[in-house]
Design goal:
Blueprint (H helix, E strand, L loop, with lengths): L3 E5 L4 H17 L2 E9 L12 H22 L5 E8 L1 H10 L3 E8 L2 E2 L2 E2 L3 H8 L4 E5 L19 E5 L7 H14 L3 E7 L11 H28 L5 E7 L2 H8 L3 E9 L11 H9 L4 E6 L3
Parallel strand pairs: 1-2, 1-4, 2-3, 4-7, 8-9, 8-11, 9-10, 11-12
Antiparallel strand pairs: 4-5, 5-6, 7-12
Helix pairs in contact: 3-4, 7-8
Length: about 300
């Protein structure tokens, strides 16, 4: 795997927001940056008018070159490569992710990512990319503007969702390393629901049992976080363990986040995408950039 961050872009303001986020991240990591434009193989997805092969080449090559000019102006020391590929967007982007430290895609949220409908291309990439994928929210004020370097933003807390029933090492490693690079704090969020049979709030016994489960969950979360606190001693880490719906609690906790990190199982299935309800909700509703990190189930 090369030391490169890859951005999938289409020339829109949304994808340009992803470009500038990735350029800043590549500079912090000391990696190169690859700007990748995917020309969809379907003939009717770009324009009702047929384009000649030469026109397609000029259009496809112009988009990453234009983005590269903006990146080089803002980050003159950054090594920037451009490329475009004609092919299936999901396959091309997943292959690019496999060759990169990180894949970054622009996200309009509540509907589309990098110009594609969430639930098709973007959802498939999030669910099947073998490496972490970051979805960056586009600018609000002018969706049709060409985009440009965003104003410097404070690092913001890195909010990470922790699932105590499956592998969390890859997710926490990504979150803590990002926070360490950016001088940010980490908030580890775990939410749980009581077993439905004991009547958690309806009887004294149910209330006591809920309190016992809460204490056990808090202890388990603290145990999971302890080695990461030792590995990244400069990163402040707080734990949020609460009774509630995981997706709802994580979205609420991420209101002022600089980055939200969620995991998804790295298992492969021929039956389609398996992203998970929590990651799906976060991608739809969080305003902050969202990192989806594949992990192995335990």
């Amino acid at each position: 795997m090369s030391r490169t961050l890859t951005v999938g872009l289409d020339g829109s303001a949304v994808s340009m927001a992803a470009v500038h986020w990735a350029a800043a991240e590549a500079s912090r990591r000391g990696t190169g940056l690859r700007l990748l434009h995917v020309w969809d193989i379907r003939p009717d997805v770009h324009s009702p008018l047929a384009l000649t092969p030469a026109e397609q080449d000029r259009r496809s090559d112009w988009i990453p070159r234009r983005a590269a000019d903006q990146v080089r102006a803002a980050h003159p020391a950054l090594e920037v490569a451009t490329s475009y590929v004609c092919g299936d967007p999901v396959e091309v982007l997943c292959e690019a992710a496999a060759e990169s430290e990180l894949l970054v895609i622009g996200s309009r949220g509540l509907g589309t990512v990098a110009g594609y409908v969430l639930g098709s291309v973007s959802l498939a990439v999030a669910a099947h990319a073998p490496r972490p994928v970051v979805f960056v929210r586009g600018p609000k004020e002018d969706p049709g503007s060409p985009g440009g370097p965003a104003a410097p933003q404070p690092p913001g807390t890195v909010v990470v969702g922790v699932d105590l029933t499956s592998g969390s090492d890859a997710v926490l490693a990504f979150a803590l390393a990002h926070a360490d690079r950016h001088g940010a704090a980490v908030r580890a969020v775990h939410s749980w629901s009581p077993p439905p049979f004991h009547g958690a709030e309806s009887t004294p016994a149910g209330h006591d049992l809920t309190a016992e489960v809460a204490a056990a969950k808090e202890a388990a979360l603290a145990e999971v976080l302890e080695p990461w606190r030792r590995k990244f001693p400069a990163v402040p880490v707080t734990a949020q363990c609460s009774l509630g719906r995981p997706a709802h609690e994580l979205v609420d906790a991420a209101q002022d986040a600089g980055l939200v990190v969620v995991g998804r199982s790295a298992r492969r299935s021929p039956l389609g995408a398996h992203l998970g309800a929590v990651a799906h909700a976060v991608l739809h509703h969080c305003l902050a950039p969202v990192a989806v990190v594949p992990h192995a189930d335990v």
